[in-house]
Amino acid sequence: MKIAKMVVVAISLLMCACNGRENTLTGPSNGAMLAVAGASSTSSTSSTSSGRGRTRSAPSTPELQAEGQVKSVSATSLTITDSRRGDMTFVLTPSTIIRKGQQPVAATALVAGDRVHVKGTKDGDTLTARLVIVEDTEGENEPSEFEGIVKAIAADSLTLTTPGGEIVLTLNVKTQFVPAAPVAGDRVHVRADRVSGSLVALIVVVQGQEDHGQQRVEVNGIVSAISSSSMTVRTSSKGDVALKIDAKTVFHPAAPKSGDRVEVKAVMKDGSLLAVDVKVEEENSSDRH
Question: Which residues pair with 89 in a beta bridge?
């Protein structure tokens, strides 16, 4: 009888091991509970739980920052010249934020010469701008210079095609043309000031017109004498250089005085140098003699 009961228990244990289910058996004599757990079920559950507990995070896209002057801009791209890394082109997306101070602006509000700080991401060779902050340069009075081919010219605007894209400059009654106003197709060199976010052309020099008796000359040095019609600049290589001044001569930020260091763009006219553009550099006492 006892042997028969033991055989029944053994068969039950074997069945539990085979089907992986947990079974509870009642002993034949004392009613004690016998619990048998399927090893394969426990192992599978543990493995599944362990697998579900591990979460792999997706690799993050590296963020980069750049700072420099806007070279060209469109609705979908922005090219800046970074002082360390050179030209960098960023993709502009609908989620790109462009801000001037605390005011959000459109990409069309940016112009060549603007100084910007860009935060973005790099995916392979593609740079995408996430945030573009336009730095405030009001009051710095630093003229920008451009060189390119005239695409169009009107009474109040000049459009240039440059290596960095198209640039539109404002023309006004103070804009000086040397030797004369350009036409479409002319190569020009332009010096401009930023006024209320726009580039205003101060002087437009048409290049390649030396055959018209307008040879361009640049003079750098210290002003040793100046009057309403002439100026003498003491240079390190050519000694004293005399220049004429007329009503069309442009001064930045104001007319110089004796002792100021200047950078002068002049043209040779009738055997004399005529000062066209005079930029007064920052005062440096060590340069004075």
Answer: 79
Q: Which amino acid type is present at position 211?
A: D
Angle at 253 between CA 105 and CA 229, to 5 degrees: 145
Same domain, 69 and 117: yes
* Rounded distance between C-alpha atoms, residue 285 and residue 289, angstroms: 9
Question: What global pTM score does this model have?
Answer: 0.38
Tell me, what CATH number does 264's domain have? 2.40.50.320
* pLDDT tens-place string over residues 194-234: 776 678 888 888 876 544 445 677 888 999 999 988 999 99
Mark whether 237 and 217 lie in a shared domain: yes
Q: How many domains does the chain have?
A: 4
Task: Record the tokens describing residue 10, joined without a space.
Answer: 């053994």
User: Which residue bears the tokens 């079974």?
Assistant: 23
Are 105 and 75 within 8 A, CB to CB?
no
Nearest partner of 170 among 193, 144, 145, judged by Cα: 193
- Verify that 23 and 78 share a domain, yes or no: no
Measured at the CA of 210, the angle between CA 230 and CA 143, to 5 degrees, comes to 60
Q: Are 232 and 223 in contact (CB under 8 A)?
A: yes
| Phi, psi (rounded to 5 degrees) for 138 | -60, 135
Q: What is the dihedral of CA 102, 113, 132, 137, to 10 degrees?
A: -30
Compute CA 81 distance to the chain's CA centroid, rounded to the nearest angstrom: 6
Query: Does 48 map to a domain?
Result: no
